[in-house]
């Protein structure tokens, strides 16, 4: 299976587990909600063995954007803050059910 198809399956799995619709994960805008969801998904893919360049190709973003997003999620996990959307992103990024679903794709 090619990476784009696998990425799309990961989006569907994330939408199913979290309740956020699939279009929220692929929203190209810079709205904070879509950005944090995207970062959390990228984090899961990175933890599943994907390289940032592979995630970038599949998602249509540059690998440096992916690297930044993954690093931000890692930082948010270590340094929780008061913003609701960041707490949601951390909860999604640490969701074991989603991690297992993505690894099984």
How many domains comprise the coordinates? Answer: 1
Order of helices and strands: HHHHHHH
CATH 2nd-level architecture: Orthogonal Bundle
Q: Judging from the principal axes of the Cα atoms, what is the shape?
A: globular
Q: In terms of structural class, how would the helical and strand content be classed?
A: mainly alpha
Mean pLDDT: 88
Number-wise, the strands total 0
Q: What's the CATH H-level superfamily name? A: DnaA protein, C-terminal DNA-binding domain
Largest sheet: none
The total count of helices amounts to 7
Which spans of ≥5 residues are poorly predicted at pLDDT below 50? none
Distance between the termini: 9 Å
Content of β-strand: under 5%
CATH class: Mainly Alpha
Computed over alpha carbons, the radius of gyration is: 12 Å
Topology-level CATH name: Chromosomal Replication Initiator Protein Dnaa, Chain: A
Helix content: over 70%
Would you write up a description of this structure?
The chain has about 100 residues and is mostly helical. The protein has a single domain, classed as DnaA protein, C-terminal DNA-binding domain (Chromosomal Replication Initiator Protein Dnaa, Chain: A, Orthogonal Bundle), CATH 1.10.1750. Helix content is about 75%, strand content about 0%.
